[in-house]
Specification:
Strand order of the largest sheet: 1-2-3-4-5-6-7-8-9-10-11-12-13-14-15-16
Structural class: mainly beta
Order of helices and strands: HEEEEEEEEEEEEEEEE
Strand content: over 45%
Number of strands: 16
Number of helices: 1
Radius of gyration: 20 Å
Helix content: under 10%
Largest sheet: 16 strands, antiparallel, barrel
Shape: globular
Oligomer: single chain
Distance between the termini: 34 Å
Length: 263
């Protein structure tokens, strides 16, 4: 029950505040049709973003597919000033540079309630401190404990082309994750990146590398795990400004074609 109550409370907080100040949202969304060898799915996502005042923004994102009713994916308030940015609510936060294989090292911060604090330390330094609720689920699906988890991310821009960073994430369910990251952009179209460290709840270290190429309507990305030879790749093509197609594949013989329409 707690899993449902927390998002509802967050949603109520966001919208009651927005209605009180008559902050009309900007609405955007995406419809995706995903096709694999064994199944297909139609997914819809609608986002409503707006400002409560000069310093506070709000966001509500709803998602649905053919099997589920409409549910809250994100609902948050963000306070921005010259000194600090603070986000409160349910929202996605994964600072990994990996795009397809980031689950190997990180647990995405999308708990029913989380807080993320980013002090302004200048253009070259990015510091994020995140705190979230995290439920430990037993073998029978029951909630065994509610562990307050936290995450610290520190990035430093060495030059206009190179950024290095470190991320520490502790779910309080086992070994914490400590991951070093580097990202280089030798040209406007090419990005090379990598991570080294241990995934959450294990002390085993691993290294992942990746590269991305984007030019006009075409994008190509590939990632590789140096320790277990896992890999993933995808190719995207923007048919028009609103219509796109993407094909994903990986070492586990998973293939997926996605057709998307944004508005």
């Amino acid at each position: 029950m707690k899993k449902f109550i927390a998002p509802i409370l967050t949603l109520t907080m966001v919208f009651s505040t927005a209605i009180a100040v008559s902050a009309a949202p900007a609405i955007s969304g995406e419809v995706e049709y995903k096709l694999t060898e064994h199944a297909s799915a139609l997914e819809t996502e609608i986002s409503m973003d707006g400002k409560l005042n000069t310093n506070i923004d709000y966001n509500l994102t709803l998602e649905s597919d053919l099997m589920d009713l409409v549910q809250v994916d994100e609902a948050s308030l963000t306070y921005k000033s010259d000194l600090v940015t603070v986000q409160v609510g349910q929202f996605g936060n994964n600072p990994s540079v990996m795009d397809m294989m980031d689950g190997a090292n990180f647990h995405e911060m999308k708990a029913p309630f989380a807080v993320n604090i980013s002090p302004n330390l200048g253009e070259k330094i990015n510091l994020e401190i995140g705190v979230q609720s995290y439920e430990t689920v037993g073998d029978l699906g029951q909630v065994e404990a509610d562990n307050g988890a936290y995450q610290i991310e520190l990035d430093y821009k060495i030059s206009p082309m190179i950024t290095v960073g470190v991320n520490y994430q502790d779910l309080k369910t086992g070994d914490a994750a400590l991951v070093w990251q580097v990202e280089a952009q030798p040209t406007e179209s090419v990005t090379i990146y990598g991570e080294y460290g241990n995934p959450v709840n294990t002390s085993d270290e691993q290294a992942l590398i990746g590269a991305a190429y984007t030019q006009d309507k075409v994008s190509v990305r590939g990632e590789y795990n140096l320790d277990n030879d896992d890999w993933a790749a995808k190719v995207g093509y923007n048919v028009t400004k609103n219509i796109s197609a993407e094909f994903k594949t990986n070492s586990a013989d998973f293939n997926q074609l996605t057709l998307g329409y944004t508005f």
